[in-house]
Specification:
- The chain is an alpha+beta fold.
- The protein has 2 domains: about 5-260, Orthogonal Bundle (Endonuclease III, domain 1); about 270-395, Nucleoside Triphosphate Pyrophosphohydrolase (Alpha-Beta Complex), CATH 3.90.79.
- It is built from 16 helices and 6 strands.
- Helix 4 packs across helix 5, helix 4 (about 70-80) packs antiparallel against helix 10 (about 160-170) and helix 11 crosses helix 12 (about 200-210).
- The radius of gyration is 25 Å and the shape is globular.
- The structure holds a DNA duplex (11 and 11 nucleotides).
- Its EC number is 3.2.2.31.
- It holds the Pfam family NUDIX_4.
DNA sequence: CACCCGTGGAG
DNA sequence: TCTCCAAGGGT
């Protein structure tokens, strides 16, 4: 027999209606039971029983076998928080949210500002807006219960292909094909898929669909993700420890790190802007305003700022200030966004009267609860650090 | 499909 | 220092 993965037999036998690229990249036909997939899922689930990560939103494999299901609310919340975000970053936010809002109805009843404030720092703030919208739909239109099928879940705000499948599988035992970044990596390696992302997604989905067991589909999905997170890592995967290495084509060919292949990404442009941190002389409060609900950092608070639409050579300067004051340059903040790099000049001034602009005062004590994204928190800190009057006042 | 949308940690 | 990128979704 040739060097062929035991997990690709089905693929060879398949008709290959999806055929594009190398013949052995042909996925099995969806909905067709796959003996090879069964072999993989069995090995993987056995590994998961012994090595599952212990995470706050999870039910252990042992408890799961006793019929204990995780709370759909907690599964949903964790899945949304984990979108493009590391487990390490999510943990404390998950703890905060579940303690403050133990049920979806509690969350639905929360003020927008409270939720945005609690989400501040986690990034991708559209998630927080959609989270709240989803909580309200579930509470008001579904009697406080999450729909139990991927199809129905998919219709809710902030729940796409991945999240709907993940919730359906993990919380409701639906054998939905869960495909996230981890599973894309694991799958492209198992089958040595040469097609670069995102074009390979269709084939990946078909493979995953064939692998997904009808028994323990949720544990299977989480096992794949754990495998990707701890063994089948982007760099230097620990194939020696991998429970499915025997069936991995990339491993056989000695080049697991070459997958998944990806298209080259575009360079990030540079932008510059300015933030104006006005501080109240009497108590050091900072003047804030709300950003528009759409677009970058949508719905979050900020000190009045210019837009960053284009690079202005030589900086922006105090001419861009939202109101007259004794503005002086406190420094600057460099911040990398997903698709551009920003340098934000930070100007500061001390004032007595309220500015004649939309906004509110945030006292030093209330600043922690403000919906300030990390960028704006940095800007306030820069202004703070160069305000000599602060220490004078506080003594 | 291509683009927009944050942040922090790892190497 | 710098690049990569993590349990993606919306438009």
């Amino acid at each position: 027999m040739t060097k062929k993965s035991i997990f690709t037999r089905q693929a060879q036998a398949a008709d290959g209606t999806l055929a594009r690229g190398a013949p052995d990249e042909r996925p099995p036909r969806p909905s067709q039971a796959s003996p090879a997939g069964a072999a993989l899922s069995t090995a993987l689930l056995d590994w998961y029983d012994r090595h599952a990560r212990d995470l706050p939103w999870r039910t252990s494999p042992a408890d799961r076998k006793r019929g204990i299901r995780p709370d759909p609310y907690r599964v949903w919340l964790s899945e949304v928080m984990l979108q493009q975000t590391t487990v390490a970053a999510v943990k404390s936010y998950f703890q905060t949210f579940t303690k403050r809002w133990p049920t979806v109805a509690d969350l639905a009843g929360a003020p927008d500002e409270a939720v945005m404030g609690a989400w501040a720092g986690l990034g991708y703030y559209a998630r927080a807006r959609n989270l709240l919208a989803c909580a309200r739909v579930v509470t008001l239109q579904h009697n406080g219960r999450f729909p139990e099928t991927a199809e129905e879940l998919r219709a809710l705000p902030g729940i796409g292909d991945y999240t709907s499948a993940a919730i359906a599988a993990i919380a409701f035992d639906e054998p939905a094909a869960v495909v996230d970044g981890n599973i894309e990596r694991v799958t492209t390696r198992l089958h040595a898929i040469e097609t670069p992302l995102p074009a390979a997604r269709k084939a990946i989905r078909a493979f995953v669909d064939a692998m997904t067991p009808s028994l323990r589909p949720g544990d299977f999905a989480q096992a794949m993700m754990d495998l990707g997170a701890t063994i089948c890592t982007p760099r230097r995967p620990a194939c020696v420890l991998c429970p499915v290495s025997a069936g991995c084509r990339a491993r056989m060919e000695g080049r697991p790190e070459e997958f998944p292949r990806k298209l080259a990404k575009k360079a990030k442009p540079a932008r510059i802007g300015a933030a104006f941190v006005a501080r109240r002389a009497s108590d050091g409060a900072v003047w804030l305003r709300r950003r528009p609900s759409t677009g970058i950092l949508g719905g979050m608070s900020e000190p009045p700022s210019t837009d960053w639409s284009s690079r202005m050579d030589g900086g922006t300067g105090r001419d861009a200030a939202p109101f007259a004051a004794g503005w002086r340059l406190a420094g600057s903040v460099a911040h990398g966004f997903t698709h551009f790099d920003l340098v934000l000049e930070v100007w500061t001034a001390e004032i007595d009267a309220d500015p004649a602009t939309e906004g509110w005062w945030a006292t030093p004590a209330s600043l922690v609860d403000e919906a300030l994204p990390t960028l704006m928190r940095k800007a306030v800190a820069v202004a703070e650090s160069t305000a000599p009057a602060t220490k004078e006042r506080s003594r």
